[in-house]
Amino acid sequence: MMLKIIVLLTLILSGCSANPAKSQKDESLVTGEQKIDVLFVPGMGMGFQAFMRPKTPQAKNYTEWEEFNQLFEEKGFNLKVAEIPALASIEKLSTALEKFIRREFPADQGRKFHIVAKSMGGLAVRKALSDSFRESEWNSEIKPLSDQIITFTTISTPHKGSPVADMLMRGEACTFAGKLLMFFSPLGKFFNNEDGFGFDAAGNDITTYSSALRIKDDPKMTGRIFSFGANLDCDAACRSEFHDRKENFSEVLMCWHDMMVNKYGENDGLVPIESATYGQYVETFDGDHIAISEDDPWYKGKPIWKKVFYRVLDNIKEFEASSSK
Question: For 29, which DSSP code?
Fold first, then answer.
């Protein structure tokens, strides 16, 4: 029972019609027929391991996921997965991300790539882009990351924060299961560090009032940013084309969805569409915040993550096609 409670606690804050991608022509972004890299930046780490070891990256969850890698290859891309802490503040995540990018994509090699980020990973990317641009302004020897990034796409990223994070940080709950979680949540203090790692550090940074969300975006990325969101639209048992979840998880997500819908409109149980909108908003998926990027035993319906990433990668290809004309 205790293990299930801790796992759910880390899960709850993890990390419309389509519009064709349009862009201004930029010859420096044309990649031709060569297979190019897509860097995937995960959201909050999930599960007991992330809760216990918040500094440890969980990139292997994706690099060792065969179907996920095959999907990117099928679309003509090489998949790279960012090695960033499982649970940390936006500042810590962005610092680790920039170091990873500088190491894996050396600027002096002219390596260009796309970035796709889920949930809190999108905030880490924005902060890393912002910091590198500001550094380049006072030090000409430093090249901003935006010189190498072709497009930047976010999936259910809480750009304006999550009302659910507000509630959790206040110790409030939405269901009986949630109240039980709140009772045991002080256990998390044992695994939180004062230097920006752990559940509290991550959760506080995605509240709707968080100062960490006041990111000064790199202006050089204008016209190359896309975003997607999701809406949890299913019956009381959370059964739809993509869902058939066990009772406890669907109950919690549906409760949060219903709690937010009157004030914030469509949402995926954690992030409202309004908050997920950034750059050019492309599409709303039918799914909850976790299902859209995970393949786990809690889901018995169709694996929605396939539809999500097919569409995201198609949008990137549309951008590349329009840039090469």
Answer: G
Which residue(s) pair with 197 in the sheet?
88
Phi-psi group of 140: left, alpha or beta (phi > 0 → left; psi -120 to 50 → alpha; rest → beta): alpha
243-291 pLDDT per residue, tens: 655 555 667 777 888 889 989 999 998 999 999 999 999 999 988 888 8
Q: What CA–CA distances, in Å, run from 23 to 27, 57, 312? A: 12, 34, 16
Domain range summary for the chain, segments of one domain joined by +: 2-16+23-323
Q: Among residues 58, 39, 37, which one has the least CA distance to residue 49?
A: 58
Q: At 304, is the pLDDT very low, low, confident or very high (cuts 50, 70, 90)?
A: confident
User: Are 202 and 88 within 8 A, CB to CB?
Assistant: yes
2-16+23-323 has CATH 3.40.50.11690 classification: no
Q: What is the dihedral of CA 39, 210, 158, 22, to 10 degrees?
A: -70
- Tokens read off for 52: 């216990």
Distance CA 131, CA 25 (A): 26
pLDDT tens-digit readout, 43-76: 988 666 777 788 889 899 899 999 999 999 999 9
